[in-house]
Amino acid sequence: MSFSRDSKVEILQTTFNDEDCAIAFLAGLFHSCGQIEKKNGKLYFKLVYDVEELFDYVSEIIKKFFGDEVLPEIAENYNINKNTYYEISFEMDKFKSMLLDVGVIDLQDGELKLRLDLDKNILAEDEMRRAFIKGVYIGASTSSIKLSSEPNVSCGSGYHMEFVSQSHEFLQEFAEILAEYNIIGKIFERKNAFVLYIKDATTIQDLLALVGANNSVMEIANEIAARELRNKVNRQVNCINANINKTVEASLRQVEAINTIIDTIGLESLPEDLQEVAVLRLANQEESLDELLKLSTIKLTRSGLNHRFRKIIKIAKDLEE
Known about the structure:
Helix content is 53%, strand content 17%. With 321 residues, the chain is an alpha+beta fold. Strand 1 and strand 2 form a beta hairpin.
């Protein structure tokens, strides 16, 4: 399962004992993934969603607080971009009372119309707003977050979560509700829809905590820690490799200079102090300056040894010119 779907299933493990919160949840859900369609001369309010467990969850809420047995029409599952989606259709005449209560339809001139603005009474209390956000999260959220399957293997995924809707007005009101909890997102238009997106990992964690997906919060925290550790190790390895490369390149220059001197004027023509370090380098061509100092009987500092090699390189350069 994906991270997004796992977090939604986790939210559906909790139930509502308060009717106002249950209605707020349905309002968020119906506003975020609902639409009206006409079929066989009847109007239906249809939900389109990507979590199979949602049907039983919504059924239990409606039975508990509205007293009606839900007999929705479930369309066949279908796939879009490798994702499976499900549909539930509510006959509007039969569920008119419920749909009016959750604020997704209005009676206008005796006709039922889709309501785009939010009913402020449903969002009057903090717990009701939290329940509403849960409904929107279940109905409209998607995420590109991927968790690493192994601690040392990167999944190559960033932190991105978004809410998609056909209504800019709805997303704008929803963004204002999230902002009350310091969860800030940006809205942009994509093709024929609008998108509210969040790209900051900490903000996504706050949102998941707000909707009660605590296991998902911990999974992101672990992923952040794992990625930071991998990045730290990679930086250290890169630093070590860079130092090794520098050591090898320096050693090659020094050996090349010593061989140039041997082939032209001979090593014995060098001052005794330079001869000593030249012989030491030829005998230990892969060692760093620090290792050479440990192997040498010459009392020198690292800078002193490096200074002698610079002299040897200059002599070889002058000979070549």
